[in-house]
Amino acid sequence: MMRVQTRIGLFGGSFDPAHNGHVMLADAALAELALDVLYLIPAAQSPFKPDDKPVGGGARVKLLRLAFAGRENCKVDERELQRGGISYTIETVRDYAVRHPDAELTCLIGADHVPLLPQWREADELADLVVFAAVPRPGGVRVDFPAPFRGRWLRGVPVDVSASDIRARAREGQPFEHLVPPTVAEAIRNLKLYADQT
Ligand code: ATP
């Protein structure tokens, strides 16, 4: 019988908090790429947001689990939180490549990151090890993935939401419940997560 290559999705981010845009991107990838499993990987500290102080890893993991509850093939991987420091994708991808040498690894990213890929750490090795996948932002154009990166655009349905918008709304007492799954909204309120953050 022919051996089918395992398809593993890797989705890293601050997830501060997990929101409907993340869920949409994950669902698009699961469906369109026929992933066997998707790992959600919260960063300790994003290299692109050196001045941000995300809420604690424990709270972000909790929200992420709530956002993806019921999706059997979605798993939260805490390796970047455990590693600490700045979370470089290449280090995480290397771990996966060693543990799953025969799998096809796909990294999910937001459309805004696509033109910036050449600036990612160890870009050549990264481009060698993974394929990328993105959904255009609302009204955005599908630029080519910059060489040497390989990537594809997913259809998905763009959702105009960002974590920083949600944090600002929560801080200002504005509604944010429509931007996150209901269980996430409830946990943000109960844990008073973004109430007095800057
Ligand atoms: P912030 O507003 O704090 O910058 P964010 O909403 O972009 O955060 P991250 O956790 O940093 O959230 O995002 C993780 C990944 O998900 C990134 O690759 C980001 O581009 C992508 N992403 C975030 N929001 C959306 C969205 N609405 N649609 C598609 N991709 C998204």
Quick overview:
This protein has 198 residues and is of the alpha/beta class. Helix content is 33%, strand content 16%.
Give the topology, please:
Blueprint: E1 7-13, H1 20-32, E2 37-42, H2 57-67, E3 74-76, H3 79-83, H4 89-99, E4 104-110, H5 123-129, E5 131-135, E6 151-153, H6 163-171, H7 182-191
Parallel strand pairs: 1-2, 1-4, 2-3, 4-5, 5-6
Helix pairs in contact: 2-7, 4-5
The protein binds adenosine-5'-triphosphate.
Overall description:
The protein is of the alpha/beta class. The protein is 33% helix and 16% strand. It has seven helices and six strands, in the order βαβαβααβαββαα. The protein has a six-stranded parallel β-sheet with strand order 3-2-1-4-5-6, with helices on both faces. Helix 2 (57-67) links the parallel strand 2 (37-42) and strand 3 (74-76). Helix 2 packs antiparallel against helix 7 and helix 4 (89-99) runs parallel beside helix 5 (123-129). It is globular, with a radius of gyration of 17 Å. The termini are far apart. Residues 13-16, 21-22, 25, 109-110, 112-113, 135, 159, 161-164 line the site of adenosine-5'-triphosphate (ATP).
Q: What is the CA-based Rg, rounded?
A: 17 Å
- How does the major sheet shape up? 6 strands, parallel
> What is the H/E string?
EHEHEHHEHEEHH
Q: Based on helices, strands and strand pairing, what is the structural class?
A: alpha/beta
* Number of E-type strands: 6
What ligand molecules are bound, each kind once?
A: adenosine-5'-triphosphate
Oligomer: single chain
N- and C-termini, Cα separation: 57 Å
Q: Which word captures the global form?
A: globular
Strand order of the largest sheet: 3-2-1-4-5-6
Low-confidence runs: none
How confident overall, as mean pLDDT?
94
Share of helix among residues?
Answer: 25-40%
With helices defined by DSSP (H or I, 4 residues minimum), what is the helix count? Answer: 7
User: Which range does the strand content fall in?
Assistant: 15-25%
